[in-house]
Amino acid sequence: MIQVEIDKGSGFCFGVVNTIRIAERELGNTGTLYSLGDIVHNSLEVERLKKAGLQTINHDEFSTLKDKRVLLRAHGEPPSTYRTAAENRVTIIDTTCPVVLRLQQKIHKCYRETRDKNMQLVIYGKEGHAEVNGLVGQTDGTAIVIEKTEDLGRLDFTRGIMLFSQTTKSLDGFREIEEAIRQRTAPGVTFQSFDTICRQVVNRLPGIKAFASSHDWVYFVAGKKSSNGKILFEECRKANPNAVFISAADEIVTPLPPGVQRVGVCGATSTPKWQMEEVAIRIKTLNNLPPA
Ligand code: SF4
């Protein structure tokens, strides 16, 4: 009989757990709350909280609000968001993840200490990603964001460089960028790099690889915009070519191929457990398996 197993190591990281817990508490008290941007990169979880009264707004809408309560998600925000809130008497419910907060503070400190020293602050991350915007904001918008080695042409290798990483980027990608900068930096020029990748993501890699390789077929569940979802899925696929990326249970429309006996369901740090459970139920329904 086909076995369906949900990966115990998958699901919300503590940063996301904290954000959702605070949002649910606020919604329980008042029945309504604004969230600046999607509370988590998972559209079904956003939809669930919307039904409970959570209203997602963008930065333009945020700037027009007055006397409201607005949740800042785990990704964090730049200082300009806090200034706007203060000007408009908006109460901030700040759920910035402590890991992101520490990184913001570190970058801000480095910026203050080096801004008169011709130093370039560089962030390895995704241009326009909410966390990256919050990090760039710590440097008055001066930090340079690079996503790949092809972007390194934007750096001046005769000036000092400090390299940081978005918390959810891949460690391998960071090491590659770090090495490429090291090789190009002119002799005698300062280059400091800080591995600021969150261990909630890195530490899941061996576990998810082992989980994927111990199953014949794997459904990896995550939102399409999830950065760590992309990294974790890549690892799953390397370990098991029969790994399939889905964002919702109803994307599975056919039974499993013949011969599959062990099916795994896993996901990202932004994937709720209830969603992986829905996927497991869907697999069982399509393959005529008993529910429990
Ligand atoms: S992945 Fe890490 S940095 Fe991002 S929210 Fe989770 S715990 Fe915080």
Summarize the SSE layout with pairings.
Elements (H helix, E strand, L loop, with lengths): L2 E4 L7 H17 L2 E4 L6 H9 L2 E4 L1 H6 L4 E4 L6 H9 L3 E4 L3 H17 L5 E5 L5 H7 L7 E3 L14 E5 L5 H14 L6 E3 L5 H4 L1 H10 L3 E5 L5 H13 L3 E4 L15 E6 L5 H14 L6
Our measurement of the CA-to-CA distance between the termini, rounded to an integer number of angstroms, reads: 13 Å
Count all strands and give the number. 12
- Compute the number of helices: 11
Overall average pLDDT: 96
Major sheet: arrangement of strands:
1-12-10-11
The helix/strand class is: alpha/beta
The main sheet comes to: 4 strands, parallel
Walk me through this protein's architecture:
It is a single chain. With 292 residues, this protein is an alpha/beta fold. The protein has 3 domains: 94 residues, 4-hydroxy-3-methylbut-2-enyl diphosphate reductase, catalytic domain (Cobalt-precorrin-4 Transmethylase, domain 1), CATH 3.40.1010; 84 residues, 3-Layer(aba) Sandwich (Rossmann fold); 101 residues, 4-hydroxy-3-methylbut-2-enyl diphosphate reductase, catalytic domain (Cobalt-precorrin-4 Transmethylase, domain 1), CATH 3.40.1010. The protein has 11 helices and 12 strands. It has a 4-stranded parallel β-sheet, sandwiched between helices. α9 crosses α10. The longest helix has 17 residues. The mean pLDDT is 96. The protein binds iron/sulfur cluster (SF4). Iron/sulfur cluster binds next to α1, α5 and α8.
